[in-house]
Backbone:
């Protein structure tokens, strides 16, 4: 589904990604793990068109998207849920969700909204609540729900469990599994390495802007270097 070859990205004179190559097969959960500053967020922003590459290629469903605009990338089915949720705090929860449906015909939006409420029933109860008054976990549900409103084929999640209480962390990972089972491919950036690799079909470890290791989720969980560096074992 998504193929990245020898991708290089810089912020001015500072290079952030070095020859990054990875594959996200259709129907899988692919985890991207690594320390802060490893380049994970930069990679997602480049895929979604918010940053431009220096060199390398990004293909999605066999077509190059390196020069495609962010709105067009969303229309093609690649949806990015950013780190930190980035909600509109003074708008209602419902209006925040509808912001994710801007690429859909108006006639499709009510049905899509109901499908999101099936994933997050509590959001239907809170539909008229101001987003900024929701708990951190509920706001993360809104952020993911807003991404789902765009009918993604590939959903990219950046640190969805960051700062959440343990109960909400478990719920977020349960929802990610459910979303994947519904037919959506998932590229998951996550510092909770144990959780991420436990549910991922395959994973990549980033270090200093490079892919350092790759393999199935279970293989990486069993790797001594991963266990020592990211699991404290």
Residues:
């Amino acid at each position: 589904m998504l193929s990245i070859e020898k991708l290089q990205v810089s912020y001015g004179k500072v290079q952030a990604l070095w020859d990054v190559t990875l594959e996200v097969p259709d129907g899988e959960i692919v985890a991207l793990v690594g320390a802060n500053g490893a380049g994970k967020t930069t990679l997602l922003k480049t895929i979604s068109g918010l940053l431009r590459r220096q060199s390398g290629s990004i293909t999605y469903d066999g077509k190059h998207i390196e020069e495609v605009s962010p709105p067009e990338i969303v229309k093609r089915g690649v949806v990015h849920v950013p780190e930190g949720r980035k909600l509109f705090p003074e708008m209602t929860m419902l209006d925040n969700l509808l912001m994710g449906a801007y690429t859909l015909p108006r006639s499709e939006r009510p049905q899509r909204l109901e499908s999101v409420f099936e994933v997050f029933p509590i959001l239907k109860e809170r539909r008229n609540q101001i987003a900024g008054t929701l708990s951190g976990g509920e706001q993360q549900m809104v952020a993911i729900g807003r991404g789902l409103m765009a009918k993604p084929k590939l959903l990219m999640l950046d640190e969805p469990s960051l700062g959440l209480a343990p109960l909400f962390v478990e719920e977020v990972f349960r929802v990610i599994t459910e979303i994947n089972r519904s037919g959506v491919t998932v590229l998951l950036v996550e510092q909770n390495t144990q959780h991420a690799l436990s549910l991922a079909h395959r994973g990549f470890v980033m270090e200093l802007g490079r892919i350092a290791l790759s393999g199935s989720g279970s293989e990486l969980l069993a790797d001594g270097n991963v266990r020592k560096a990211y699991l404290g074992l």
Remarks:
- The radius of gyration is 17 Å.
- The CA atoms of residues 161 and 169 lie 5 Å apart.
- The domain at 2-230 is CATH 3.40.50.300 (Rossmann fold).
- The chain has one domain: 2-230.
